[in-house]
Amino acid sequence: MLEISGNIWDYQKTAIVVVTTNGQVTKNGTAVIGRGVAAQAARLFPWFSQRLGACITENGNHVHHLGDNLVSFPVEHSPYEIPDLGLIERSARELAAMADEAGWTTVVVPRPGCGGGGLSWHDVRRLLEPHFDDRFLVITAE
Fold it and tell me: Are 135 and 2 in contact (CB under 8 A)?
C-alpha cells in the first residue's frame, strides 16, 4: 500500500477509483449518497446512485464494480452513523480479492472513513495494510 496526495479523479481514466459508500437505498432504488468522494461521484456520473442502489439491493452492502473504473467501498451501513471499522476491514478484503480476480494493477482509494466520517487514519491504516499491496494507492486530497 502506497500513500499519495492529489485529486482522486485524475486517476479515473487509467486506474480503478474507489468510492466510499454506505448501504442505504431509497424506496425508489437509488443509493443514499453521503459526503466526500461519493457526493463527487454522484455529481460526475449521473447514473452512479441508481447503479449503486441496484447493486446494494441485489447483493447487499458489499464492494461492487460499478463500471467506468469505479468501485464502491462500504464504510458504514447508513449515512447517519459513524463508519464501522469491521465493515471497512471486510471491504478491504473484498476489494483485494476483486483486484486479484480482475487483474487490476492500480487501485486508488481515499482514506476510508477518515474524512467526513471522522475516524483516525492511524486506526484505519492498520486494518488496510494486511490486505493492500503496492497496487493500492491510498490518496489524500491536496
Answer: no
